[in-house]
Fold these 2 entries.
Entry 1:
Amino acid sequence: MSDVKKHSDFFESVWLTVREIPRGRVTSYGAIAKYLGAPRSSRMVGYAMNASHSASVEVPAHRVVNRNGVLTGKHHFPDLLEMEQKLEKEGVRVEDDKVIEFEKLFWDPMKELSME
DNA sequence: AAGTTGACCCCGA
DNA sequence: TTCGGGGCCAACT
């Protein structure tokens, strides 16, 4: 096995989870952290997103917002409006940097992935 | 090796 | 209601 792994398993787990978010849905950092068994490590989820550019796979980071449904990570995209535009493209309405009807579009990995 | 940072979250004033 | 501070934990410098 070659040393292809450049990041912790936690990061990879986050990326894999984020990839499971359906199109047109959103979730929060805390929800992912909780799903991964680290409810106190929500900040690490954001950190993993920051490092997602290093991932070999594409990570739909735009589908991850904070618990308020606010696009807190928009400033980390190449373009300031990229996150918002991607969400709008998927049918997620965004207004004033926050997802409209966030609770309605919220996708909980705990709920959706725990039982198949 | 030790201190700082951060795409968060919770709570009190 | 808005604002500020503390906790959290792994990566980064």
Note: The beta strands of chain A are 27-28, 64-65, 94-95, 98-99.
Entry 2:
Amino acid sequence: MNQNEIKLYEARANIIKALAHPSRLFIVDMLNKQPRAVGELTEMIGADTSTVSKHLSVLKNAGIVEDEKKGTTVFYSLKTPCILNFISCIEDVIESNTKTQVEILSCCRTRAAK
Amino acid sequence: MNQNEIKLYEARANIIKALAHPSRLFIVDMLNKQPRAVGELTEMIGADTSTVSKHLSVLKNAGIVEDEKKGTTVFYSLKTPCILNFISCIEDVIESNTKTQVEILSCCRTRAAK
DNA sequence: TTCTTATATGGCAATTTAGCCAAATAAGAA
DNA sequence: TTCTTATTTGGCTAAATTGCCATATAAGAA
């Protein structure tokens, strides 16, 4: 890897890191349906407001969501909808992993039954 | 989030975490072209063999790559090609972020020129 | 102005991750 | 068997991440 390649893969990794957390993936799913205020998301997630605010800030810094202030309320919305295709791919991986597990289990059950 | 939702988002996050590292993204790109031995990837990345081996193990545990031993050499290959669509989405995010930066810069230059 | 509501930020301890070295293992060659 | 090559694993320290609490800020209401 030369310097340019390193920069490229670091840039990609930074965005992916922003997605690599259960609460932040939940937020992406929610914002796909409609924009939401910090307070709404906080209630749905069930964590401290400051925690959710920081998660949103991580997503915002990565360019995945954007915010708009209305009065004292800040509404967040999804900036890059293609993120959702990506999640469907992750589901494919999970499905594939599940199949592998099933195969392993059926293998062992057969052996045990012998 | 109820317990099932938490499990779902944790499962997704675990797979995404496996991708959230420059070297591992590089590996995914390389394996998309062709299967590679640990030694080849190690040389391309320029890190310790043990480090690369551990990165490969992370990807394998996540179900993203699979391995096949031939003699003393272990060849890794991409198990879930859709991972690449996802990376193209990440590129979209990077492009969008770059555009935002350009807008910010052009805004400030205009101001400074006044 | 002060009060209240909504968010963001600072700070800290606990947990996780990364990468190197050294040592262990696997498989074939001599 | 011993030697060699390829890879993995254990162990360790350094760095990054997480989540809560307390505090600060922003904006409107009184």
Note: The longest helix of chain B spans residues 83-113.
